[in-house]
Every structure is written in structure tokens, then in C-alpha cells.
């Protein structure tokens, strides 16, 4: 299998999509259980997100995949260990800068420890496209949070 280093925008977009998906799962499960455990659910989803053929929903939609040294999809055990660094506050930002500093394979700390890397399965799609998708998703999430906040406030004030 050929290796193509994905651009940083593809990887950030994939993580952003995964975070949104994790938040929806967390909210749904918390509502179902009747208690706010969104943070715990979000952590579990992020830890296990790449266990399906080295891809999460975000990676699948962005056309990237976590692979091992042999070029095969990374095993679930490696992807879980790799993702520990993404659930500890502040570390995702540090991971981003580590990824940017690796000019050959764009490995982050989690990749270096588990001996994995991320392969671009669709290198023909420009990285800049994913910058615009990320910006669009960010605007949509902010809009939804504002609308939900206004709706919640009006429900609380006018029961």
C-alpha cells in the first residue's frame, strides 16, 4: 500500500467531525439515563473511535486511515492507546504542533508511541477543502449552541 501524508486540515476536520459525533452520543445517552455524564461518554467514544478498520466517522468522511508499520489498518488496541492523548485536556493542541513538526509522516505523539501513522486514502482531494468544511462545521455548531441556549433559557424563564 502506498503512503500519502494527509494535510493537517484533513486530520483536524476528521477530529472535529468525531468530536461532534461523540458529543451527540454523549448527549443522547445522558438524556436516556437521566443524568449528565456527557464528559465520560465523550471520552469513551473518542478513545474507541478508530477501532473500525483504523477509521472513525471523521476519518472515513475525510478519506484517511490509521495504519501500522506494515501498511495495514491499525489494530483496535493500538488505536485506543493512540487516542489517549486526545482526551487529556491541552494535549490535542500539543499533538497538533508535534504533527506539524514531522515533515515526513506527520506523526503525533500517539503515533510515535504505537508505531502508527495516518494515511491519506484520497490524496487527490485538496487539503484546503477540509479547512472550509471545518469552518462550516464550526459555524454550524456555534449556531446550534446559541439556538439551544436561547431555547433552554426561554423554557426555564417561561415554564
Account of the 3D structure:
With 159 residues, the chain is mainly alpha-helical. The protein has one domain. The chain is 62% helix and 6% strand. It contains 7 helices and 2 strands, in the order αααβαααβα. It is globular.
Tell me the number of helical segments per DSSP (H or I, 4 or more residues long). 7
Distance between the termini: 60 Å
- Biggest sheet strand order reads 1-2
| Order of secondary-structure elements | HHHEHHHEH
Query: What is the number of E strands?
Result: 2
Spans with pLDDT under 50 lasting ≥5 residues? Answer: none
Into how many domains do the coordinates divide?
1
Could you say which overall geometry the principal axes of the C-alpha atoms support?
globular
% residues in beta strands? 5-15%
Q: What would you report as the Rg, rounded to the nearest angstrom?
A: 17 Å
The description of the largest β-sheet is: 2 strands, antiparallel
Q: Please state the structural category.
A: mainly alpha
Mean pLDDT: 92
- Helix percentage range: 55-70%
Question: How are the elements arranged and paired?
Answer:
Layout: H1 8-33, H2 38-48, H3 57-62, E1 64-68, H4 76-83, H5 91-101, H6 109-114, E2 116-120, H7 127-157
Antiparallel strand pairs: 1-2
Provide the descriptors you would attach to this structure in a database record.
159 residues, mainly alpha, 2 strands
Offer a concise description of the structure.
This protein has helices at 8-33, 38-48, 57-62, 76-83, 91-101, 109-114, 127-157, and strands at residues 64-68, 116-120.
